[in-house]
Amino acid sequence: METNNSKFWIGLGLGSIIGFVTYRFSCSSMSKQVKEKVYHSLHKLHGGAEVIMDEAKDKVLDAGTKAADKVADGTFKVAEKADEMKNKVHSYADNAKK
Question: Which residue ranges traverse the bilayer (predicted)?
Answer without folding.
Answer: 6-25
